[in-house]
Amino acid sequence: QVQLVESGGGLVQAGGSLRLSCAASGRTFTRYGMGWFRQAPGKEREFVAAITWGGSRTDYTDSVKGRFTISRDNAKNTVYLQMNSLKAEDTAVYFCAADRTPLRGVPTTWHDNYNYWGQGTQVTVSS
Q1: Closest by CA position to 83, among listed 11, 32, 18
Q2: Most buried of the four, 45, 90, 101, 122, by CB within 10 Å?
Q3: CA 62, CA 9: separation in Å to the nearest integer?
Q4: pLDDT for 68-126, tens place per residue?
């Protein structure tokens, strides 16, 4: 069974930064792409960022391009989301997720392509 544990959320002022971490265990982390999603109150869960199994390719939703960076450290079985220039509209619970398909060549934005999810970490940006 795969376990994903997020950390690093919190309360930050608009314009500030946070770095989220997601520690993975239970299967060969290095063979699977990873993604970050978020869910704001009253809204559906949405894609934020994704990275391929080797870390060479990434993808972002338009609203975070240039502000957020996804990365991974395969030696530590951990994926990160560096969030800069945070805005009030970034407030949400952030979830990391693991791709169901090993060695996928492109980062996937589709929710149903992920079959393991963390419990989420709250990010609150005050304006």
Answers
A1: 18
A2: 90
A3: 21
A4: 999 999 999 999 999 999 999 999 999 999 999 999 999 999 999 999 999 999 999 99
Distances in Å between the Cα of 40 and the Cα atoms of 24, 62, 90, 95, 123 are 24, 17, 8, 11, 10
CA distance linking residue 113 with residue 97, whole number of Å: 9
Question: Which tokens sit at 78?
Answer: 């951990």
- Name the token pair of 58: 């990434």
Nearest to 118 by CA among 93, 95, 91: 95
pLDDT by residue (tens digit) across 13-72?
999 999 999 999 988 889 999 999 999 999 999 999 999 999 999 999 999 999 999 999
Structure tokens that stand for 30 in this block: 């290095």
Tokens encoding 86 = 């945070």
